[in-house]
Amino acid sequence: MMSAPASEPLRRFLQVARGAGLRVSAAEGIDAARAVDLIGYADRTILKDTLGLLLAKTPDEKAAYEEVFDLYFKRDEFAGDKPDDRDGSADPDQNEASSPSNGEGGDGMGGQVGQSLGSLLSSDDRATLATAMEQAAREAGIENIRFFTQKNLYARRILDRMGLRALERDVEAMRQTGTPEGLGRAQFLEGKVDQLRDAVRDFVERNLILYAKGETEKFREELLKSARLSNLERRDLDRMRLLVRQMAKKLAARYAKTRRRRLRGQLDTRRTLRRNMGWGGIPFITVWKQKRIEKPRVMVLCDVSGSVAAMAQFLLMFVYSINEALSDIRSFAFAGSLIEVSDILEKEPVEEAITKIMSLIGFGSSNYGNSFADFEDGWMKHVTNKTTVIILGDARGNRTDPRTDVIGRLSQRSKRIIWLNPEYRSAWGTGDSDMYRYAPFCNLVTVCSTLRHLERAISDILEDAA
Amino acid sequence: MNDALPLEESPLRSIDSVEYGLSEAGYIANRQISTAIYMAHHLQKPILVEGPAGVGKTELAKSVASWLKLPLIRMQCYEGLDESKALYEWKYGKQLLYTQILKDKINSVIGDADDLGTALDKLHAFGNVFFSHQFLEPRPLLRSLQEPRGSVLLIDEIDKSDQEFEAFLLEILSDYQVTIPEIGTVSAMVPPIVLLTSNATRDLGDALKRRCLHLHIGFPDDKLEAKIIGSRVPGIDARLLKQLVSFAQQLRGMDLKKVPSVSETIDWAKIMMLLHTSVLEVDLVRDTLNVLLKFEADIEAAGKQLAGLTHKARQDAGIA
Questions:
Q1: How many structural domains are present in chain B?
Q2: Which domain holds residue B55?
């Protein structure tokens, strides 16, 4: 039973499912084959439920699965049907071929291979044509298509396998004859061939979606994770937000619980005795002292001036998405001066909050010294030895006083200061950058310009919260 | 579990018979749920049931057990659950007691031994007396493997347990066996039907998910919910039932902190039966709303729209 070979339609469906981003392991494939053996293909709703149980393991995957199941098996149904069945809605050829005049019947002339294609085209037998196309596509290995640049290649291969070349030769020959019927016929067939081309291109495109959507998306996401956040394109923003949420959710899940760390070598006498009371206090089981690892309290200071604004948005989004792993977040935005923005961020979704913050404190030129002084006046008293302070900024204060003394005092009061700088390390200290003046007071100074950097930085913060 | 029966008579012979059997046990299952139970039996795989609280995840396991007349073994997961509580533990007390009692007997066993070596050999001949099944305290997982007729094992709220425990479960879930160092590997006599439930408070590991069928139970639609309540609250007036269901479904459409679950609707229906209600009145609904909604803010939010909601519910039931 274990070795039940996956039947052809199932094997291809699994491939399609993987393409759509479902992670189907080989073991799951075997299970799917066993399940299909059990229930067969006859009832599509049962088949859908069954494979859904086996292949899709999250709500997202369920949705993707349903989409791909419908897409795939609708197609399959058509291919399985006999040509006399004409209602096949998946027939790509139908729409195009039905409009033009198809009165002139007649037979294709010449060519042996082209004969069949030519007669197919002129007899307007759409179902047979579509079946031939499916057949040709299978031979051309359409399931291996991955990139949109391969569209023409596959279209060409399919057309070749359907016998287009021979037909083209015939058409040319007809033209050569010079007779009116010959010319007319050639023109008619050329029109049909154009329609066929469109149909095939359409067909290839649908297959590209079917087989390669997931992979293209994965590729794109990988790219985005390591793209510099300052030069993102607008159309990628939504996807980025989604990515941030995903990453944050992962981190939050890992760190959400208050953790305990076992202290080596320190016996918890009281609890050991209690635990071993059952056998007269003889310590069969030892209990060690434990240390509670608290969730970090975080204060985030974000430079929202033009140069760093894009990054600030993602940092804030990240921090607020992991709030279940943090005990208390307060956030501040600054450019020329500093304000607290915790309220705005708590009340509104991050995207809107950011716009609001921008309009409040705006795109002025940054003045780090001034902003830090503001912080000391208003909020320094809330900083305790449990607070982690995260500062995001390029440390370019436009040649104003950097007020490193404030950061010095902050570093004494707080648990630690982490400075995230979106600039390359080589640019630190050049021009008006005061990075190296601040660096001695920070526990960690790190480059942070992509989502990956951001994820790593936050995960570090959560990691050694002990 | 029904291996003795020929396939045609097995209650698990088809998806339809599963659906019928569950409804006999008082659980109104949709097609997906019965397909899952059917597959779990035939592929011998555990089912991971996910879905919001109160849609009948735990109830499903109970119903399967009562339908197949198998013992239900339930293990509630929580943070810090470990193998000594889930799998087995040695009866230390008993072991100690027996060593004390048997002290005197030792002499008669090894009394005539000349030296230490012979004494040891004689002792070895008795095998692992103190680490044998008699001194093993089976916990839920081991118990379910030892049931001679098979069992329904419910591992409740697996997402509440630690990641380490999840990894520990993998062996039992994929091979229906556990390894006890002192004794060896214990395999199931009859593989149990395993159901794991999760409220998705944390993402479960891929390894675990891969070994399970994944069943998502959402809120039922109005027809199914009416059927469920009808079977749980027998004798309820059909028109009242319609109103209750319509009301609950409307609440689920609202933006609430926690929408009412099926179990809460059932409770509400029972209360309405006790109060001999046949038509929903705004005041009555207001007084009993805390059965359906558990947050002050939700009750307040719904309270403002009570008149509209009640009216719509009555309309749906065909009461002017």
A1: 3
A2: 7-85+149-216
Nearest CB neighbour to B93, from listed A28, A38, A279: A279
Nearest CB to B214; choose among A35, A57, A250: A57
Do B76 and B20 lie in one domain? The reply is yes
- Nearest residue in B to A49, CA atom: B32
- What is the chain A residue with the closest CA to B214? A53
For A268, the domain range is 259-293
Verify that B77 and B161 share a domain, yes or no: yes
- Domain co-membership, B60 together with B181: yes
In a domain, B273, yes or no: yes
Judge whether residue A78 has pLDDT over 70: no
3 state DSSP class of A339: strand
The interface residues of chain B toward chain A in range 216-235, judged by CB-CB distance below 8 A, are 216
Tell whether B61 and B166 lie within a shared domain. yes
Per-residue pLDDT band at B73 (split at 50, 70, 90): very high
- Cα separation, A10 vs A29, in Å, equals 9
User: Is the Cβ pair A279, B96 closer than 8 Å?
Assistant: yes
- A146-202 pLDDT per residue, tens: 777 888 888 888 888 888 888 888 888 888 887 888 888 888 888 888 888 888 888
Provide, as residue numbers in chain B, all residues whose Cβ is less than 8 Å from the Cβ of A38: 39, 42-43
pLDDT of residue B125 exceeding 80, the answer is no
Name the β-bridge partners of B259. none
* Per-residue pLDDT tens over the stretch A107-121: 333 333 444 677 778
Q: Which residue of A has its CA nearest to B30?
A: A49
Nearest CA in chain B to A29: B210
Name residues 36-75 of chain B within 8 A of A (Cβ): 36, 39, 42-43, 45, 47-48
Which of A45, A49, A271 to mutate to test binding with chain B, by most B CBs within 10 Å of its CB? A49
Q: Does the ipTM exceed 0.85?
A: no
- Total domains in chain A come to 4
Position B195 scores a pLDDT of 94
Put simply, the answer to whether A53 touches B206 (Cβ < 8 Å) is no
Task: Give backbone dihedrals phi and psi of B74, rounded to 5 degrees, phi first.
Answer: -115, 135
